[in-house]
Fold histidine kinase.
Amino acid sequence: MSIATSVLSELLQSIPYLRPQLYFKASLTALSHAMEDQVLAATLEQPLVIASFQRERYYRQEAHRYLRLAQRSNQIYVLSAPETDFTHSSESYEKIAFDPEDALSHEWHLVVIADNYATCLVCRESLGSIAKSKQIPEFSPSLDTDTSRRFEGIWTSERGVSVKAAELLLNRILLYRPDLAKKILQARQRLGIGETRIYSSANQITEFACDIDTDPFVQRLVTYLQASQYKLHKAYRSITAQARKERLVNSISTAIRRSLDPHEVLQIAAQELGQHLGAGRCLIYRAQATDAKAIIEHEFLMPSVLPICGQTWELDKNPLFQEVVQKGEGVCVADTMNDSRVTKSVALSSIAKKFAIRSWLIEPVLYQGRLLGIVELHYCKEPPHQWQPGELDLVEAIATQMGAALIQAEAYANLEDLNQQLEALDRTRSNLIAITGHELRTPLSTIQVCLESLASEPDMPLELQQVMLNTALSDSERMRKLVQDFLTLSNLESGRVEWHPESLTLQECIDLALSRLRTRPIVEQPPQIKTKISQNLPLVRADGDWLVEVLAKLIDNACKFTPPEGEISIKANRNGKQMVEVTVADTGRGIEPNRLEIVFDRFYQEEGALRRTTGGTGLGLAICRQIVNGWGGEIWAESTGKDQGSQFHFTVPIVQSSQEEKRLKVKSK
């Protein structure tokens, strides 16, 4: 059954002088509760109470109150559009489940009629609120708590109006519950509902409840209005605090967006936070969980407060810092003179006294559980500062922003490093393509041509056959060296090399490296090579095979870029107490000063991969750097420029004699 007629419309037609007013949901809730409390406050009354809820979920919020009302009267009627299990029933009170399409689904009614008083509330939700509510899903809790919903209707204590409203609602109840006719008739007869009356502006019904004390109703209504005002005031304070917090957080966020310099961001944060919270001193410094000390980097000070910036904070002796690290959250000291954590610590007591700290807050700057720094607030005046929850939340929010700023700055620095690495990788990629295209394709093509010629021309002279074989063998050896260098560098860079350090004489390693050079096929006369090793040079400690490899590659590199009439020298001297410095110098082509670092990059070729005449893969110096770094040494190049020759230096650790060996040597002397 669906009824399109509105109870409010029927009431306004029956009583033309009535003028509806606008009500908000919060006001209607206060009025309804006051009317219900008036019934609960009565002792002998048996009033008629008719309540119409738009939806079952609204009724559920008030069901407990109607159980109490049922203890005061047997004439309680509750109407609602069912959503779950709300049905017609006659338990503690009468329930009437009306059709959801009924006009009642947009109205809010509460009518109370007793022998000596009457009040009624008959309202209909405004069209704007209905349209808004239809946009919200039925399961959304926001609909139930939307206090901005508006209703138009009548609220009055005129008995005639209340009786007419009760009559209209009882008629609507009978349409749904004909079985209640006898019970409703009793209420009609007792309270005079349904009697013929003429309503006009000249004959207004003014039968107010004047023979009872209305103070309870008024007091209840005032109480609800005061409670609503208090909640509104509390909400305004909360909004103000939130706006203050957002302004401060936004200022920090703006600083973060404007600058990637963490020092600038942290200084702004210290200044803004200290000013907003009225602290005597605000400190911000970087610290990690394992740090024993920290330097105060950023500070905000009130006038006449002793500065701390630049001083060292002892963290390992600070119980408050240790508590922050253990808990992962801020620590608040309301009064340093009465807090046992401060009074029992000599270090903290000394700090509090020296810097006049009366109230103390330490908040960690965290990012994903990692401690990046600390924010400290010091209140240095009497009496101790009364911490508010909003203040602590604000400091925590700012600390979170600073954590993001520090990580952002760190990420930016890492990004710059990565960009440099990407540039190097891009150069490596380009060189690798060139190396692959030239160093592999060219010898492979030569080998293929030689083998095809040998296979297709069996009558080829023996001398020419030997030339073809020698060419194929030479180019296959070239390819083998390239692949071997690739594998060697890959193993060194990935850490898959096993080092076998031993005590070695440097002269023996140089001799082995030179013997490798002599066993190579001689293409052209190599330059003159001289060695100059210091007398009494100590033993070195390194992996012999890899040390010979470094020497061989440096000597081979010098031979490639030095003309036959030039000269190569190999020197070795003690460099300090723990290292021997080896130098391979030549009088060849030289290196421009701005290229002294990049010559150790992979695939670097001084003339370009496709234009060089000296051969090689461009991996030799990169391999040398990895080997030298592996035993803890250093390698570098020196040159005054083009055609000025070059010098390559590297260091090797000296064998360290034990104390016992030293003692025996002293005795033997």
Observations:
- The chain has three domains: 7-210, 256-409, 498-653.
